[in-house]
Amino acid sequence: MPRASANAHRFGRSRRAWAASVALIALGLPVAQLSAQDLGERPLEETPAPPPAPETDAAGNRQVAFEADQLSYDENGETLTATGNVVLRSGERSVRADTVTYNRTTGRIVADGRVRFVDENGNQLFTDTVELTDQFEAGTMADLLIALRQGGRLAARTGERTADGAIALTDAAYSGCPVETPEGCAKEPTWRITADRVVYDPSTNKVRFRGAFLEILGLRLLPLPALVINTTGEAQSGFLVPSIQVSQNNGVEVSQGYYWRLAPNRDLSARATVFTEAPPMIDAQWRHLTDMGAYQVTGYLTASRRVPDPADPSATERDLRGYLFTNGTAQFDPNWRLTSSLRLASDRTFLRRYDISYDDRLRSMANLERIEDRSYLSIAGWYTQTLRPFDVQGQIPIVLPAIDYRRRLGSPVLGGTVELQANTLALFRPDGQDTQRGFASARWDLRRITPLGQMVQFSALARGDVYNSTANALTATPIYRGEEGWQARGVALAAVEASWPLVGELFGGTQVLTPRVQIVAAPAIRNLVVPNEDSRAIDLEDTNLFDLNRFPGYDRVEDGVRVTYGLDWQLTRPGWEVRSTIGQSYRFSGNRDVLVDGTGIYNNVSDIVGRTQIKFSDLVRFTHRFRLDKDNFAIRRNEIDATVGSSRTYVELGYLRLNRNITTVEDLQDREEARVAARIAFANYWSVFGSGVFNLTDSEEDPTATSDGFQAIRTRLGVAYADECLEMGLTWRRDYITAGDARRGNTFQIYFALRGLGFR
User: Do the beta carbons of residue 16 and residue 41 sit within 8 Å?
Assistant: First the structure.
C-alpha cells in the first residue's frame, strides 16, 4: 500500500529502536509496571531532520502536516486514524508514533505506540500514549521519558502540561549522567534525584523538585528540599552539598552552604560550619565578572580561643578570628592592566587550625602594567604577613612603590638590539632597615651564526645605581646591611658566549651535542656599600650558570673576569627524549666579599653543576639536578623529581638535599626533605591514594634543627571514586607539628561533588 502523505515533506525513518530495557534497569522497575519511566539510552536519528513545516496558514490557524502508511476514517465517530510510521509536524515540533487518532468533533488527538515527541527546543519525549493539545503540544502522558537537548533525562509515571506550558511530573527521577559506557554497554546512572513531583519549564530550562532525595550508586543518601536545577548545566541558586570532617583541632565538623546565582556574571555563596570542639564559623565568597575583568572576595569569621604568643602557649584568649582573601584583574584597554591580591589573617594559626591553608606567609600586592610592542611599564607594591611562629612582623618589608620600565629600541645599534631600563624601589620596615633604590641601565646584544654553524653572542651592560638606607644596624646579617645614607655606584660588564651544536644519529634517534663557553668581564663594583634586599639567596645552579649576573636580583653584581664552560646533550627518538647539561666556571679576578663560602662560586674554581631530564611517552618524567664540590666531588645539591605512570595510576617522588655547610647566613642554611605521592586505580572508577612530606634535616646539617633526621610533616591516605558525573572519597590526613592552637593529630574528611547539577 502506498504511504499516505498530507504534503510533499517527508521524514526519514528511524532505524534504531527505543531502548526501554536500559531505562528499566536505571530505575530498577519491571517492564510491565513502568515501561517508559526510563533514564536510559537516547535514541539517535540516522537521517537528518526534515525542514520544519509551516505552523499557521494565512488566517493564523495552526497547520499540521502528516504522513503515514495507512489512513482510515470513521464517519459515524468523526474519527481519522493514521497507522504505520505516523509522522506529524507543525513548525519545529514533530510527533512519531505507530498510531494517531483525531476526533473532528472534540478536536482530541491521541498518539499511541512508541511515541516520540520533539519540541521546538530539541527536547525529546518518549512514551506509549500521549494526548496532544490544540496547540500541538504534549498534554496528558503516562510512563514517559524526556531526553533534554542539553543531556539530562527525566522519567516519570505520569505527566501533564500545565496552563503556563510547563510539564508537571509525578513519581519522577532525574539524572545528568551517561547511561552507557564508552563501549556502548548499558549502565545505571551514577547519581539520580527522585521526587514525588517535578515541574519542568522548557522556557527557562529549570527543573523544580518537591520531596526530592539524592541517590548515589543506588543508595538514597540525603533529602534535597526546595531543589531547583538548570538543565543547561549552569549554576543554579540553591543549597550546596553538605561536607563532613573530623579533626584533632575542632572535632566533628559539618558544613552547609547556600549558593545565589544573582546574574550570569556574578554570584554569592555562604556557608556555616559547626564544630563539636570549637565555636561555629561562617564564610562567604563573592565573584563578579565585569566588562574589564573579574574579581572575587572570600572571607572567614569566627570567635574562638587562640594562642597570641608562641613563646607562651598556655596563654589563650577568646577573640574574633578570620581570614580575608581577594584577587582580581582589570583590563582597561589593550595596553593597560591592573592585577591585585589581598591576603590577611587575624593571627598566625587561624589558617592551619581550620584547614584553610598551610602557607607560612601571606602576600598582598597590586600591579599596574602597560604592555606595548617594544615597551613595558610596571607600577607595583606589596605587603607580606608572616605566619611563622618566631618571625618579627616589623622586620618584614613593605614595598611601595616598585616601578620598572623597559624599552627596546626599534633600530639596531652596531647590528644588535638595545634594551633600556629604569627601576626604582622603596622598601620600609616598621622595626627594621628602610631602603630606597633607583637605577637606569642599557643592555646591548648581538647574535651571529658563523659559516660552520657556531652561534656567537656579544653582550654589554652599563648601569648607574643610587641607594638611600636608614637604620642599617637593625639588619642581623652584616653583609646585607650596606652603608647608611646616600650611596651611588656604577655597573659595567661585557660578555661573549659561543656554542656549537653538533648533530648526529644515535640509538635510532637524533642527538645534539653542544659545547658552550662564555667569558664575562666587569670592573670592580662597590657592592658592600649598598644594601642587599633582593640578592640574598645566591646559589650556583644549572639555571644561572651562564647568566651575566648569577645573583638573583639587582643589589649584588659579580665583578672581575670569569670564564664559564659547559656541555649540553640532547637525544630524541620515538617516544623518548633525554636532555642533559653540565658546566663549571673559573674566576680570574674579582671581589669575593659579597659571596659566602658554600654557595659554589666563592672560590676561583666553581663547583660543578648539572641537570638531566628524561621523558618517555606520557609515562615517565624524571629530572635530576646536582652540584658537586670542586675539590672532592662531594654532593652539595641533590634534587630529584620523578613521575611514573598514567593520570589514573602513578607514583611521584621528590627529594632535595642542600649540603652547603653554611651556618652564618639564615637564607642559606642546609636542609634535606623528601616527598612521595601515589595513586592506584582499581575496578572501573575507584582508586586509592596517599602522600607524605618528610623533613630529613638533622642537627649536623642545621644546628637549629629539632628533627632527628626523619620527621614526618604531613601524611595523607584515602580512597576515591570518580566518573563522568560523580567524584567522592574518604581522606585521612595526619599533621605532625603543633603551632599554637593548630595541634598535631588526625583529620578525616568525607567529600563528594556532583557534575551536571551546578553545585558541589
Answer: no
